[in-house]
Specification:
Layout (H helix, E strand, L loop, with lengths): L3 E5 L7 H9 L4 E4 L8 E5 L2 E5 L12 E4 L4 E2 L1 H13 L9 E4 L3 E2 L2 H14 L11 H9 L6 H5 L1 H22 L7 H15 L3 E2 L1 H10 L4 E4 L23 H8 L8 E7 L2 E3 L12 H9 L12 E3 L1 E2 H11 L3 E5 L9 E10 L2 E3 L6 H6 L1 E8 L16 H14 L3 E5 L7 E3 L7
Parallel strand pairs: 1-10, 1-11, 2-5, 2-10, 5-7, 6-8, 7-9, 11-15, 14-16, 15-19
Antiparallel strand pairs: 3-4, 12-13, 16-17, 16-18, 19-20
The structure holds inosinic acid.
Length: 431
């Protein structure tokens, strides 16, 4: 019985939602294990687009158990809205198909207020966060003052923690951030109503997963964001505040590593990034504009235009290593149609030195120039191709070159947003 993890190999938005959706047919349980509603997983099923921020993508398939693990930070208002929207379109009708970890942390109004105010004060040096309170919620978790779902369920614990936090946050909001303070009663009452709504869904999800895995159920761990946004392995400090890499699936779902048999890294056939921070292969001219237009590169969560550039083999090879990626799903190959030359970055050059492994230094990442290998382009549209052998020769060579540079098998090539616009070379659940 294989369990698989689906992990972003770049800066997020690689098309994980579509790949998760494809493999969901072969899974019984789909687990989110980190991040929060900073994620936006776009799924197109029968031409209809759904964007999910918190509920695992399995919700679009009947009878799949969806789990929000302890590593996720949850804005309960957004979760309830998402559940309601899914129900309204005839999905997730059975409440027993969604479970939330009692150890998951809540995003509170002060987290959002702090996130937004800090970004404003940072001015030019801003991280470009999604403004959803993700960083401040993880800060509280690590500082041991966060409020978990289990705390919300216990009225006295909730009151005590909330009172203490509001006292502290209000001083910080007023004196340091020059923001309005927040009201205990208002937050208490709102969150108490969320408690009643979500109570039936909250449980020990680590134990649930343990039992289900031992009963032979197949699990898919659905990553959010991407490796280069990982707080340990990404382009720090321009990262999100969680471990987006495979290790995060163990801690964020409460399962041992022996239960993850395959790690699928999702990478676009080029590169995009939202928010600030280094991006060595970024294209500022017409080629970047073409990638943005043809790839419809606008954030699913904030609507911000994504920065676009060429495929960067150095950073994706780094992702292969830190995640233990066993297979790559290469997405949006169709977007590259029409370019005369399609460059691939094979190294970075800075201060007379060649880097062929991903550097940790912000200075190097900021200033390095890409070493580009120019591949021949193709003009044929790819969106109707369903077999690798039917791809234009230049597109085949492009994919094979990436496979060689990454030293990792490409198991899937995506040529459009629809489920059917996929060239499946190997199903990880079959091995
Ligand atoms: P935060 O996660 O809102 O704190 O934002 C930190 C950084 O991660 C910013 O650069 C965001 O643009 C980026 N980010 C967060 N979530 C996503 C995502 O789902 N896709 C792409 N970038 C993201």
């Amino acid at each position: 019985m294989s369990n698989i993890a689906i992990i972003g190999a770049q800066w997020g938005d690689e098309g994980k939602g579509k790949v998760v959706d494809l493999f969901t047919c072969d899974a019984d349980i789909i687990v989110r294990f980190q991040g929060g509603n900073n994620a936006g997983h776009t799924l197109v099923v029968d031409g209809k687009k759904t964007v999910l921020h918190l509920v695992p993508s399995g919700a679009l398939h009947p009878n799949k158990l969806c789990v929000i693990g302890n590593g996720v930070v949850v804005d309960p208002q957004i979760l309830i809205e998402e559940i309601d929207a899914l129900k309204a379109q005839g999905q997730l009708l059975d409440d027993s198909l969604l479970r939330i970890s009692e150890e998951g942390h809540l995003i509170m109004p002060y987290h959002k207020a702090i996130d937004l105010a800090r970004e404003r004060l940072r001015g030019k040096g801003k991280i470009g966060t999604t403004g959803r309170g993700i960083g401040p919620a993880y800060e509280d978790k690590v500082a041991r003052v966060g409020i978990r779902f289990i705390d919300l369920l216990e009225e006295d614990t909730f009151q005590e923690k909330l009172r203490h936090n509001i006292e502290e946050k209000n001083i910080y909001l007023k004196a340091i951030l020059k923001e309005k303070t927040l009201d205990f009663d208002e937050i208490h009452d709102t969150y108490s109503s969320y408690r009643e709504r979500l109570r039936p869904l909250i449980t020990n999800t680590s134990l649930l997963l343990h039992r289900e895995i031992h009963a032979g159920k197949r699990v898919m761990f659905e990553g959010a964001q991407g490796t280069l946004l990982d707080v340990d392995h990404g382009t720090y400090p321009y990262v999100t505040s969680s471990n987006t890499t495979t290790g995060g699936a163990c801690t964020g779902a409460g399962v041992g590593p022996q239960h993850i048999h395959h790690v699928i890294g999702i990478s676009k056939a080029y590169t995009t990034r939202v928010g600030s921070g280094p991006f060595i292969t970024e294209q500022f001219g017409p080629e970047g504009e073409t990638l943005k237009r043809e790839g419809v590169e606008f954030g699913a969560t904030t609507g911000r235009p994504r920065r676009c550039g060429w495929f960067d083999a150095v950073s994706v090879r780094h992702a292969v290593r830190v995640n233990g990626i066993t297979g790559i799903a290469l997405t949006k190959l169709d977007v590259l149609t029409g370019f005369k030359k399609v460059p691939i970055c094979t190294g970075y050059r800075f201060d007379g030195r060649l880097y062929d492994e991903f550097p940790a230094s912000s200075k190097v990442l900021d200033k390095a120039e890409p070493v580009l290998e120019e591949m021949a382009g193709w003009s044929e549209p790819l969106t109707a191709v369903r077999k690798f052998s039917e791809l234009p020769a230049a597109a085949q060579k492009y994919v094979q070159r990436i496979e060689k540079l990454l030293d990792t098998e490409i198991i899937l090539v995506s040529v459009g947003p629809g489920r059917e616009q996929t060239i499946l070379l190997k199903n990880p659940f079959d091995s």
